[in-house]
Amino acid sequence: MDFIKTYAEQITDTLNNLLTLDDVIELIEKPRFNDQGDLAFPCFSLAKQLRKAPAQIAQDIANKIKHDLFEKVEANGPYVNCFLNKNMASQNILQTILKEKSSYGSLPIGKGKNITIDFSSPNIAKPFSMGHLRSTVIGNALANIVEKCGFKAIRINHLGDWGTQFGKLIVAYKLWGNEEKVKEQPIKELLSLYVKFHEEAEKKPSLEDEARKWFKQLEEGNSEAQNLWKWFKDESLHEFTKIYALLDIHFDSYSGEAFYNDKMANIIQLLEKNNLLTQSDGAQVVELKEYDLPPCLIMKKDGATLYATRDLTAALYRKETYQFDKALYVVGQEQSLHFKQVFLVLEKLGYEWAKEIVHIPFGFILKDGKKMSTRKGKVVLLEEVIAEAIQMAKKNIEIKNPNLENKEEVAHMVGIGAIIFQDLKNERQNNIEFSLEEMLKFEGTTGPYVQYTHARACSILRKADHKRQAQITTALDDEYSWSIIKLLMDFPSIIEKSFIHYEPSQIAKYLLDLSKEFNKYYSHVKILSNDDGLEGRLSLVEAITIILKEGLRLLGLKAPEEM
Ligand code: ARG
């Protein structure tokens, strides 16, 4: 049952179709204070058409509405406030959730449509940075969210596996490298070679020429260069895969930049045919003066292609291969200009679908107020951070629940969950402060807090060991349950909002609210102590476990039943 829609229908009827149903739905608000009811319809916008004061209009509408689902409808100044029939609404929503289980909140918006999501996309032979972690976590949540909205999600890891840095690495490896060391700790070792290259090149600039030569060899298919590149790539990918396994994140494609090496001729031809290429200092560019943007670099003097050339090629390839209706790129805000340029070039080529490509930027991760940087070898290795989080989670669990059986497994879920939630509870454009201690707290606005609430609810159900009845006959009429019921009713619209704004934080914040309300309920209402109304209370608790678990799943967190 959609309460807002029912209310909107009633209002539309009283207005003799002066507004459409959608207009009315759009206007309906959820009042912040309980004495203003559960739904409110503001009448300001009707004053002109009806030539009446908004308060009078509100009064007229209120007088005309009568429905079983509403306990009362009353005018309050220019608003028509609606109080839902708590009993009916509670029964209705709980029955729906218990029946639909984890599919409650699924929406049909994307039926038959595809969305590609380009996320994570780390650079080979470099560490998995905190920025890549953000992209990974946000992208994964968005993929889950669009699926919940009925779309088919195609998860793409656009690996940074091509570029001049490979020339530098080859030179460095040949001069100072050691095979065993690379095999032992590929990312650390390759990074230190890379750093050493830059140090040495400052003293001896000819190394740069060497590197350019080797990159050219690589592009031309020289087998020594190719083999080294392939080896670096395999070793790095192996490391990245470990991180994805820890996070339980999967991709449909790992086709990165190198994949497009033999596919770029087409886009260059197209640009030529459309007279879009101009010469600039020997390089080929697409001018974007009319948008007040610097030109998009397509080809360097020496014929080498660029990051943008690959992204243009990839966009065409993805459109053809996946027939996307929307294409999302979850990449840090520092690449905004790049994506603007790429999308505009596609538009200039006349592709209508260029409007459906969206860059989804996000802010930085800060440590003690400073940006965490991977340059100059000062890196925080993500794997180590994850291991530490799991370790700390284990300590917390040992204090809270020393007898827990599968401690290791739960510590894993909690440690990883803490890292993911800490990121997703913030609006993605904000910078976020990284503190393992903060994110692992079992109280406060953390992942473990939501997981703990879920486990607490599960433990009530275990204790009750109840047999679920189809009908929830008992009234849930205390204010604590009503706050929960209202949140449960909101879940589908939260999913929709998180999709519309590409904002997983909507769901994270919602889960925090729901947890808070449940914990209030838990401390004020004796759930198990008497049989009177037990069934209704248990249904409420079960519905909460379903929604918390599903919400956590959408964000990429597990929900242990005990912790
Ligand atoms: N590898 C790039 C980086 O680390 C991110 C790639 C994002 N995706 C894309 N299609 N450009 O900066």
TrEMBL record:
Q: What residue stretches are annotated with the Arginyl tRNA synthetase N-terminal domain?
A: 5-84
Molecular function via GO? arginine-tRNA ligase activity
- Please list the coiled coil stretches: none
Motif 'HIGH' region extends across: 122-132
For the keyword Ligase, the answer is yes
Extract the InterPro entries matched here.
Answer: Arg-tRNA-ligase, Arg-tRNA-synth_N, Arg-tRNA-synth_N_sf, ArgRS_core, DALR_anticod-bd, Rossmann-like_a/b/a_fold, tRNAsynth_Ia_anticodon-bd
Superkingdom? Bacteria
Top-tier EC class: ligase
Quaternary organization: Monomer.
Q: What NCBIfam families does the entry give?
A: argS
* Family, per entry: Belongs to the class-I aminoacyl-tRNA synthetase family.
Name of protein: Arginine--tRNA ligase
